Amino acid sequence: MGRAMNGYHDQLRLIRALRHPRLYSHAAKNIRVIETHISWVVLAGPFAYKIKKAVNLGFLDYTTLAARKHYCAEEIRLNRRTAPDLYLDVVAIGGALDAPRFGSVPAFEYAVRMKRFGAADLLDGLLARGKVLPRHIDALAASLADFHARLPSVPVDSVYGTAGSIGRIAQQNIEQLRPLLHATADGQTLAALARATETEFAACAEIFAARRAQGFVRECHGDLHLGNIALIDDVPVPFDGIEFDPALRWIDVMDEIAFAMMDLLYRGHPAYAWRLLNAYLEITGDYAGIAVLRAYLAYRATVRAKVSAIRAGQAGTSRHTQQTEMASCRDHLTLAQRCLNDRHPALIITHGLPGSGKTTFAQYLIEQMGAVRIRSDVERKRLHGLQASERSRGDIYNAAATGQTYARLYQLAREMLQAGYVVIVDAAFLQYAERGQFRNLARELAVPFAIASLHAADSALRRRLRRRRGDASEADVAVLEKLQAVQQPVAPEEHARMARFTTAQAPDSRDNARAWRKLASMLTVSVA
User: I need a labelling partner for 60 at 20 to 30 A (CA). Which of 338, 393, 514, 519 fits?
Assistant: First the structure.
């Protein structure tokens, strides 16, 4: 006969017993146990057995066996959406505490059985070791865009994802953190952050509601920090999504992206953070989500601060670990405050013929500056119902289509500048009127304005266009020759706001040092 568990202390006995290889029906050498603040993961042979702790932390309650069984099933259901090959099944554990048997009934515990992978495969560690490459970030953005596109939107009558519930969750997170902070300075930091958070979320309330009505609140992963993403067969695979509270996973998709972006910022990789955001936006077209990004970045940083504080306060934690976790808590709180305060809008437009390196330059710029890019080639196709990689069959490059494209770029730039971000518009801007329209936008909004003019030899332009593969742009040598004939020269009054770059070499080559200095100086003052 099995016996009833008496809670957390009985679970400790179970975990000790599960360290013995003889208990498993499969080979199980070098058994290891990983402990988090809410679970144990027993690594045994080719499998990992995840057991939920019988704890009530306020934001989750695993104290009953029925609850743990339910949430094990939910964990399988939810995580198979992003990691179907990792999540296998829910297994019952019966027998006795000191001699447990998998699959035995009646069960006194349940575990999620997963395919085992190494801690060395987690993105947080790989990032620290310099093993995460730009293509991994791009692949993550693409997989998240695809994942979000497949999710149903929240039902209209649901309680999840409303403006009020979003604000309450953010404030509850702060309130749950408050008693975990014992130093006076930490309490003062949190109090200031609480006020700033309340202000930001109140300002975003109407946008939260509008995005919910537009279908952007979906049943997401919910806990997308880098420690919950594994690189398997060179592909980023999110796992360990939130199962214990629907309110924490029925969220705005921009909240999800903000979590991963925040973690990249926290770990000292802002270039990858902005690369991830821009790759996701380029695929989804969800530039309107930028209006709530700042709020979600701060919220996610505060969530991780709370997790660190919980870990620091757990029984049996060493003094060194306590100090490390509290340092992490403070650093996350500082990041949250910085995310709320960081508002330095500026507008940069590119200028150059096809093949001159505008997109490569803009990619470098967004990663170095922390900016949002809008690509004319991508938005032109989006306006005509095409994916960036699709080839157009009709004429989407006539004068009318070009006018629509620049109008779209203008509107997006306006919205993101008003949200307080640096915006880079990646387009040819070969006509004086096109450049003037955006210069006037910067003047109207009183933000700095600069033109990055990209140049290469005619032979280089032709060579690049002949070699171009898999790009959103469809420009070829014939298009180049047409545009060379109709481009308008830069007017004398434009030179003051233009930095001339050569793209014969990399954007940061010594040949461009003077242009970089001029660009930097232009971004310190608003256009007159």
Answer: 338
DSSP letter at 4?
Answer: -
User: In Å, what is the CA distance from 199 to each residue of 195, 288, 345?
Assistant: 6, 20, 20
> Do residues 301 and 266 lie in contact, with contact meaning Cβ atoms separated by under 8 Å?
yes
Alpha helices in 386-486 (DSSP H): 399-418, 432-445, 458-467, 477-486
The DSSP bridge pattern shows strands 498-502 and 449-455 to be: parallel
**In the chain, which stretches have pLDDT less than 70?**
1-6, 394, 527-528
The first and second tokens of residue 264, run together, are 């990249």
Backbone φ/ψ region at 135: left (φ over 0), alpha (ψ -120 to 50), beta: alpha
Pairing of strands 229-232, 250-252: unpaired
The phi and psi torsions of 351 (rounded to 5 degrees) equal -150, 125
Domains of the chain: 8-116 (3.30.200), 123-341 (3.90.1200.10), 346-522 (3.40.50.300)
Of 2, 7, 34, give the one whose Cα is nearest residue 102: 2
Give yes or no for a contact between 261 and 294, defined as CB atoms under 8 angstroms apart: no
Q: Does residue 93 contact residue 107 with C-beta atoms inside 8 Å?
A: yes
Q: What rounded mean pLDDT belongs to the chain? A: 94
Distance in angstroms (rounded) separating the CA atoms of residues 226 and 456: 39
CA–CA dist 50, 73 (Å, integer): 12
> Quick one: what percent of the chain has pLDDT higher than 70?
98
Nearest to 452, CA basis, from 371, 368, 522: 522
Please say whether the beta carbons of 261 and 270 come within 8 A: no
CA gap 109, 7 in Å, rounded: 10
User: Hey, CA dihedral for 158, 159, 163, 167, is it positive or negative?
Assistant: negative
b/e sequence 12-45, b meaning 16+ C-beta within 10 Å? eebbebbeeeebbeeebeebeeeeebebbbbbbe
Q: Give the total residue count for the chain.
A: 528
Q: What angle do CA 255, 370, 443 make, to 5 degrees?
A: 105
On the question of a cis peptide bond just before residue 354, with omega within 30 degrees of 0, the verdict is: no
pLDDT of residue 477: 86
Q: Is the pTM of this model over 0.70?
A: yes
Distance CA 272, CA 305 (A): 21
Alpha-carbon distance of 124 to 313, in angstroms, equals: 23
Q: Is 510 exposed, middle or buried (0-12, 13-18, 19+ CB in 10 A)?
A: exposed
